[in-house]
Amino acid sequence: MNNGKLTRGEQYRLASERDKKWLTSLDLSRLDNILWPLYIAFICLNFLDLFTTSLALSNSLVFQERNILAAKLFAENFQGFLFALMIKFAPTFPLFYAVFLRDPQNKHPYQIRLIKVSAIAALIVGDAFYAWVVLLNNIPVLLSGSIGYVQK
């Protein structure tokens, strides 16, 4: 210590210890109970986004996908569509790992909790984004009746 002040290294070490203690105090079953609904909502919202987008694309000559990569892939043949599906659902695989990750012998309590808390944060952001896309963008376009005149 310099004159009662901690060095940056000491501050980092203390913060790291505090965070590790907090994470290891979290109940794994409670984290799993939070992860399940968030993960299911993420998959359902992804599917609804895909469904409403493809429905709008098939019913409209004017509807445009704002995602540049997805728009180019949707414009391609069936292989482009399948590639777009792979890209769209790619985040579900590492999240699936986080949801089903177990440590029955409790050898890695900190790491398991860190992965699960990170997955919860990612799912909250992902669910919020897809809820916005589906509920405030795609569905109003489909329900408006003037689908050919509204752009996504």
What does this structure look like?
The chain is mainly alpha-helical and 152 residues long. The chain has one domain (27-149). 74% of the residues lie in helices and 0% in strands. It has 6 helices and no strands. The chain is elongated, with a radius of gyration of 22 Å. The relative contact order is 0.16.
Which SSEs are present, and which pair or pack?
Layout: H1 8-24, H2 28-59, H3 68-75, H4 78-89, H5 92-100, H6 109-143
Helix pairs in contact: 1-6, 2-5, 2-6, 3-4
What labels describe this entry?
mainly alpha, elongated, 6 helices, disordered C terminus, 152 residues
Structural class, by secondary structure, is mainly alpha
Overall geometry comes to elongated
Number of helices: 6
Tell me the Rg in angstroms: 22 Å
**Span from first to last CA?**
58 Å
The number of strands is 0
The percent range for helix content is over 70%
Topology pattern, helix = H, strand = E: HHHHHH
